[in-house]
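Exercise 7. Given the encoded structure of a 230-residue chain, write a plausible sequence.
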């Protein structure tokens, strides 16, 4: 673990400014990735979360060193983590097609808060390494995730069918292709096609059949109007 000169760890105008600027930079980099991909919490939100967490830890250090009051240095940090948990909930929502969105953004906010806590207490090496890994996880790993998900044998699909009776025939025809329809539920969405039935279904694919093959089969099925993988 590398260490910097004492001036970076002492509570002074220089170290306070350095830590807050570092928090702004770290939170901003993470927030830019989220904002560029049109996620609920973006550039400014991540900066504010990281800055607030940093200031909380600086305040802890101020209470102990300047005011000479005995206090647990992790106390305010614990409250920050709890508070950011509530903030993260506001970014999570379930779409009408039963798809949960915002979990990664909520996790990013929480990670930004912990990054701010590390910066605020002067744990620069941990903050630097974690900041790089957090950004890498958000910016680069979705490609890896997408690759492995595309190879998965389980699919969640939103369908608009001609009628509910067509579902039985569809299930039978899927079984003939060794595709298991193991879960189905009516969607709360209003159908795009008037009179259609909106469904969320879960499929398990056999070996040798990929997501594109299954979607092509459903798109060409006579009584299916709309198909979308969720």
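Solution.
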């Amino acid at each position: 673990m590398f260490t910097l000169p004492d001036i970076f760890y002492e509570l002074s105008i220089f170290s306070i400014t350095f830590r807050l600027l570092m928090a702004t930079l770290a939170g901003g980099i993470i927030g830019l990735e989220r904002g560029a991909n049109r996620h609920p919490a973006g550039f400014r939100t991540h900066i504010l979360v990281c800055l607030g967490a940093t200031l909380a830890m600086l305040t802890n250090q101020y209470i102990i060193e300047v005011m000479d009051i005995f206090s647990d240095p992790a106390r305010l940090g614990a409250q920050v983590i709890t508070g950011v948990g509530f903030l993260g909930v506001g970014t999570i929502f379930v779409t009408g097609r039963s798809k949960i969105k915002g979990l990664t953004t909520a996790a990013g906010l929480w990670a930004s808060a912990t990054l701010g806590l590390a910066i605020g207490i002067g744990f620069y090496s941990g903050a630097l390494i974690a900041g790089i890994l957090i950004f890498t996880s958000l910016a680069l790993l979705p490609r890896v995730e997408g690759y492995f998900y595309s190879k998965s044998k389980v699919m969640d699909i939103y369908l608009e069918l001609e009628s509910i009776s067509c579902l039985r025939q569809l299930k039978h025809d899927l079984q003939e292709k060794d595709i298991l329809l193991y879960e189905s539920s009516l969607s709360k969405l209003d159908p795009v096609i008037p009179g259609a039935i909106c469904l969320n279904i879960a499929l398990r694919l056999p070996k040798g059949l990929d997501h594109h093959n299954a979607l092509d089969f459903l798109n060409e099925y006579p009584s299916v109007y709309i198909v979308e993988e969720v």
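Remark. Residues 6-147 form one domain. Students should compare their own answers with the one above.
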